[in-house]
Amino acid sequence: MGKSDFLSPKAIANRIKSKGLQKLRWYCQMCQKQCRDENGFKCHCMSESHQRQLLLASENPQQFMDYFSEEFRNDFLELLRRRFGTKRVHNNIVYNEYISHREHVHMNATQWETLTDFTKWLGREGLCKVDETPKGWYIQYIDRDPETIRRQQEQERKKKQDLDDEEKTAKFIEQQVRRGLEGKELEMPVYTELNRENEEEKVTFNLNKGASTSVTAASSKTSSVLGQNALKMAEGAVKRKEAAHSSGQPKEKKRKSALDEIMELEEEKKRTSRRDYWLQPEIIVKIVTKKLGDKYHKKKAVVKEVIDKYTAVVKVIDSGDKLKLDQTHLETVIPAPGKKVMVLNGGYRGNEGILESINEKRFSVTITIDSGPLKGRRVEDILYEDVSKLA
């Protein structure tokens, strides 16, 4: 076999050697070339290509250092985020995993001299939480992704809403128990004298559950006396109740059933549930951002398409131009009374209705729903930002 043969033992040995990690002192970051020994590194430093790279770097060395520093920081943080997430981990563990990749950016080409300096810099910049322990420096990645923050806020809002629902349910049960106790009259025990005409008669005790008296005589005479007393007490109670009802006191209002109160609670829950997005197709909005210039500022447009709940493709009514805008750059449009509108937030979200009146002092409107199962219902005090004109 020839010397340059691909399957020669020397060629195979060279590939095996070049596959693994080599010594850092024999690596040229400018040329991104790894040498296997000191002689190879010396030959590389004397080569023409290396000299050209040094001439380019000498013109603006700070630019090259900033580039390598940025690459090192981005790759390190990406590995920390993907591999460990927001867990607390030793910085040396992350660094050893980072340098295990052959084509990584070496720290000696960056603005940081040691891993400790780089860790402190991450803490000062607010990219990670760092703390020093007797075992060394520990880092914890801070996830500032907008989607992650929005998801955390949604979970906190849902948790708070669940707690509010539990409190409302406990309060509702307490009210029901109180009402049930109010409707019952406390039964007072009746004490009677134990009479026995004959000393030879036996005395018996009646221990029936719920009985007002626990001791009764066995004789028929005593039983009749007790029966007459109980009858008189029952008649007196009936007379007192009838007298109370026949008095001039106003009648109490009819109590609502438990089902009606539960339905009211559910409706109140829907009415108070709000979301942080409100865009809907086929509504008229007003462009409020000034970044597009005076040509589109304060112009009205029709929402043609909603993208990712927070972005909309709108068509300007005057010029017919189509724009892609975030919901923060738009606001709702309140038409004149009698026009059709759509509810964009709250418990009646997605329902269409007719605008009845506008309350300028409270910045709210009153509408009558004209579609769906709630057709004909009149809803008051809907905020301006929760309703918009239909195209």
UniProtKB/TrEMBL annotation:
Source organism superkingdom: Eukaryota
| Compartments it resides in | Cytoplasm; Nucleus
InterPro entries given in the database record:
C2H2-Znf_KIN17, DNA/RNA-bd_Kin17_WH-like_dom, KIN17-like, KIN17_WH-like_sf, KN17_SH3, KOW, KOW_KIN17, Rib_uL2_dom2
Which spans of this chain does the record mark as coiled coil? 149-176
Region: Disordered, residue numbers: 238-258
State if Protein biosynthesis is listed as a keyword: no
Which residue ranges does the record assign to the DNA/RNA-binding protein Kin17 WH-like domain?
A: 52-178
Which residues does the UniProt record annotate as the domain KOW? Answer: 334-361
By its UniProt entry, which SMART domains does this protein fall under? Kin17_mid (SM01253), KOW (SM00739)
Q: Which UniProt keywords apply?
A: Coiled coil, Cytoplasm, DNA damage, DNA recombination, DNA repair, DNA replication, DNA-binding, Metal-binding, Methylation, mRNA processing, Nucleus, RNA-binding, Stress response, Zinc, Zinc-finger
Subunit structure, per the record?
Associated with DNA polymerase alpha, RFC1 and cyclin A, in multiprotein DNA replication complexes. Also associates with replication origins at the G1/S phase boundary and throughout the S phase in vivo.
The Swiss-Prot or TrEMBL record describes its family as follows: Belongs to the KIN17 family.
Q: Its function?
A: Involved in DNA replication and the cellular response to DNA damage. May participate in DNA replication factories and create a bridge between DNA replication and repair mediated by high molecular weight complexes. May play a role in illegitimate recombination and regulation of gene expression. May participate in mRNA processing. Binds, in vitro, to double-stranded DNA. Also shown to bind preferentially to curved DNA in vitro and in vivo. Binds via its C-terminal domain to RNA in vitro.
Question: What name appears for this protein in its UniProt entry?
Answer: DNA/RNA-binding protein KIN17
* Source organism of the structure: Bombycilla garrulus
The coding gene here is Kin
